[in-house]
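Curious: why this fold?
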Amino acid sequence: ILMNTRLETADLKWTVYPESGWEEVSGSDDEMNTVRTYEVCKFGTPNQNNWLRTTYIPRHGAQRVYVELKFTMRDCFSIPGVPGSCKETFNLYYYESDSDSATQGSPAWMENPYVKVDTVAADSVFPNKKVGRANTKILNLGPLRRNGFYLAFQDQGACMALLSVRVFFKKCPAMVAGFASFPETVTGAEPTSLVIAPGTCIPNAVEVSIPLKLYCNGDGEWIVPLGKCTCGPGYEPAKKHTVCK
């Protein structure tokens, strides 16, 4: 996990533009835990363009990351005399950087230099500002090449609360199979990528067939084992074939 706002107890202090747009408040999630949230509700004036940018997120070797968003959205049609500028969507962007170099005015608050991930629509909207079921969306972005990145949210006239943001990546855990050990391996740049992990025989084991390798798929699961080892002379399998003793 690279970021999880549900675990934060102090102010997030993300960057907002303009200052009259997104507002950080203390709220409650659907399990009544106190969380730091951002809200915006400026649909009354047309041509809204409110941006919210996270702090810098180091990617720790991840090439593709997943963003879980929990948010509530007001039903435009439930608001009396609502203008046509009311929205029930918002946009998610990201910006890559080798260091925490963003400022209030840089990068510029527009789609380029940011990269758009998607327009996020609410499955569930509610008529009353105080009551509503949270929406959960998981999006992915990449391939990432810089040391880290920022996420940015653009509001164009919605009445919504961003309840939590969780950013994570997937990896295949270190494991022993066929008397060979394989290292923890981060998934590839695309959801369909297969990353090769070379294996080594465990202590007191010898190669039977080569090459020793496993493939780590985009879901963080090991598939297609190739090659294997076996316990050497004078040793026998133990601990469910993970040790030669």
